[in-house]
Amino acid sequence: MPRPLVAITHVSAMQANLAAARKAVPGARTWAVVKADAYGHGLSHAMRAFEAADGLSLVEFDRAARLRELGWQKPIMMMQGMYDVSDIEHLARDDLQPVIHHAEQCRMLEITPINRPLVVHLKINTGMNRLGFMPSQASEIYHRLVSMPSVRSVSLMTHFANADSNGTMPDVAAQIAAFAHATAGLDAEVSLSNSAATLLQRQIRGDWIRPGVMLYGGAPGMQSALSLGLQPAMTLQSRVIATQSLRAGDSVGYGSLFIADQPMRIGIVACGYADGYPRLASTGTPVLLNGVRTRLLGRVSMDMLAIDLSPLPDADVGCEVTLWGEGLPIDEVAAHAGTIGYELMCGIAARVRREVRD
Ligand SMILES: *Cc1c(COP(=O)(O)O)cnc(C)c1O
Fold first, then answer.
1. Which residue's alpha carbon is at the smallest distance from atom 4 of ligand 1?
2. Has residue 212 been placed in a domain?
3. Does residue 246 have a pLDDT over 70?
């Protein structure tokens, strides 16, 4: 018997979420973001699910080459561009479109002859202060890129820091204004919106959107995925492999962080932090036991965690446990561990068995 823990990727959920993204911004084309092995869902499954996307977008060169091997013929965007001049040969060979965000990358393009000129994406830093040229440089860099023999065409992009919040922080409106000002008069296609902007900032209009987490059923902000009409694309599932009967005063696990205040039964589940379940999840983190909500108890171990069997008095070894997935949003589990659904999706360990369902 294999260990009962399995991470299931749901292709139809990813298809439905892509449709939701496209519907949210009618007329825009879609870069489906598949970095980090499609946020942990499997690159080849994502490629199949996102057949209807206009392009795929990621940051890893070996994975981009893999997409071409698997037969993806539409555009591929490299969202961090090239890291070294030697990457340019890969861009040309696999017809990849680099984001150009730094002067050093312009220089690489200028000094490297290419037989097949590249489509490039000029990134403007409008307030995120991660990647991109200052707005005041946008026009100059744009014209410099357009004039290079190694460049076929240039489009424009920026990235929002707070598209999921209203008000308090450097906001979307200020970033849009900075972008509009920086790119005024430049004749180019524009891509702006991540998932949060796609779902929550409907006023934004770009030629392309760049949704990531929403395609996997993750909520980009405080609103629940369900209320945003998204379907979970991953189920992390295991089984109860042991039970214990506690007396009042008995404790559970390392550090004895949970102490029973009355007699109760607990189940030990084959899933721990070495599988990608967050160790910082504490007592009370929701778990589904045969579809019924119960709670995590005490500290998560490397290969195991403990749950409360009280809601199902007949529960025993073999009962199915859902750590996240349908009926238990990944973001809710993440919130109990002080993190976000993104991190949990991407963090499933290599030892976890994988399955895919249509
Ligand atoms: C990861 C990424 C996205 C997708 O972000 P989500 O929040 O997952 O929708 C879009 N654009 C860029 C540049 C990214 O790095």
1. 212
2. yes
3. yes
